Amino acid sequence: MWSAKDLGKIMKTCIILHNMIIENERSEGVNPEDWRDEGDEPSESINLEHDFTLIMSMMINRTKQVQDT
């Protein structure tokens, strides 16, 4: 489905974008450790439930749409 070369390019792009975002936030003086939305209270545990089959199905459909265009 995906070639190793394509996945490598995608991963490199994600890393570059991540680093650009971090660099931008640092220049603005944003400290992600200090940020908290108003009304947020620390929670001891987070319970996330995802339907893996639904997520995979959506990803496959999106991939097909991109390939068809």
Automatic annotation (TrEMBL):
What is a single Pfam family found in this protein's UniProt entry?
A: Plant_tran
**Which InterPro entries does the record associate with it?**
Harbinger_derived_prot
Protein name listed in UniProt: Uncharacterized protein
The organism named in the record is Cuscuta epithymum
